[in-house]
Write a structure and sequence with these properties.
It is a single chain. By secondary structure, this protein is of the alpha/beta class. Helix content is 48%, strand content 13%. It has helices spanning 10-21, 37-50, 69-80, 85-96, 113-119, 121-131, 147-155, 170-179, 203-211, 227-233, 244-256, 259-282; strands at 25-31, 54-58, 107-111, 135-138, 159-161, 163-164, 184-187, 218-221, 239-242. It has a nine-stranded parallel sheet. Helix 2 packs across helix 4, helix 4 (85-96) runs parallel beside helix 6 and helix 11 (244-256) packs antiparallel against helix 12. The protein is globular.
């Protein structure tokens, strides 16, 4: 097992703060470049202002296997606008040059492995780290094929985040967790991404199985969109990932074609995250504060 470097990223620091206050973290996901990188910058500023604890920047990809229709369409719009991995890394640089809280929010690059491989692992890791990224999640990279990736990213002090699923066995979860740093991302359900009305019944069992094999913070994604979801998750997970619900807000503003709707989109995103963060702070299932 690879030994993690003795460093603390913005990700681990933020999780430590959340643990100290017994508070569930909110991870906000958007597809970078949808509908433009300039718009994405405004969205990130609004999400951070609204209370997002972490922000995931989706790198658009032409064949997004795990993504539902909402995020697939967002990827198509971002690719049409000319967004590349290099452009997303430059967006990270622009975010870091902004004012707090956006300049200090932990940023995760959420990508398929192909764009990273095309850029080259060394170049990607050094560019992402220099821009101010904190972690990377390559959705279709398996632990077995990740040795070089993890070594090169760890040398740049980038967290490597991997996905666990309801179909993962206990042994598989342990292997995934051993390759992860920053946090473990648990997919709450089988299938593709998309906002849902209710959380799966077997989610608590999946979280219990994951806790048994790792001390990493655990974030839960896929289908989380409502304050009620966040309230329930408060006693179970360390963070909730909100993706399709935010991407839908952006799509609605983009579809309308009106400049008023486009200018209102950052406010709508900030308000939605604020409501979810309030549920995390005051939900019925707050985590016990560690002694």
């Amino acid at each position: 097992m690879m030994v993690r470097p003795p460093h603390s990223t913005r990700i681990s620091k933020r999780f430590a703060e959340l643990r100290a206050s017994g508070e569930l973290g909110i991870v906000a996901y958007i597809v970078a470049g949808d509908p433009s990188l300039d718009a994405s910058l405004k969205y990130v500023l609004a999400l951070a202002e609204g209370g997002a604890d972490f922000i995931e920047l989706g790198v658009p990809f032409s064949d997004p296997l795990a993504d539902g229709p909402t995020i697939q369409r967002a990827s198509e719009r971002a690719l049409k606008s000319g967004t590349t991995l290099a452009g997303v890394i430059d967006l990270v640089r622009r975010i870091r040059k902004s004012t707090p809280p956006a300049s200090e929010v932990p940023l995760v690059l959420f990508s398929y492995y192909n764009p990273i491989l095309q850029m080259g692992l060394e170049k990607f890791a050094s560019s992402a780290a220099a821009a101010g990224a904190d972690g990377v999640l390559a959705t279709d990279l398996t632990p077995e094929e990740s040795d070089d990736y993890r070594r090169i990213l760890a040398a740049q002090h980038l967290d490597t985040i991997f996905l666990g699923a309801p179909t993962s066995t206990d042994d598989r979860l342990a292997k995934i967790a051993a390759c992860s740093s920053g946090f473990l991302y648990l997919i709450s359900r089988t299938g593709v991404t998309g906002a849902k009305d209710a959380l799966p019944d077997d989610l608590p069992a999946l979280l219990r199985r994951s806790r048994a094999v790792t001390q990493l913070p655990i974030a839960v994604g896929f289908g989380i969109s409502l304050p009620g979801h966040v309230s329930v998750l408060g006693g179970l997970a360390d963070a909730a990932v909100i993706g399709s619900a935010l991407v839908s807000e952006i799509e609605s503003a983009t579809k309308s074609g009106s400049s008023a709707a486009a200018s209102d989109a950052p406010t709508a995103l900030g308000n939605r995250i604020h409501a979810l963060k309030e549920a995390a702070r005051h939900g019925l299932s707050r985590r016990e504060v560690a002694p």
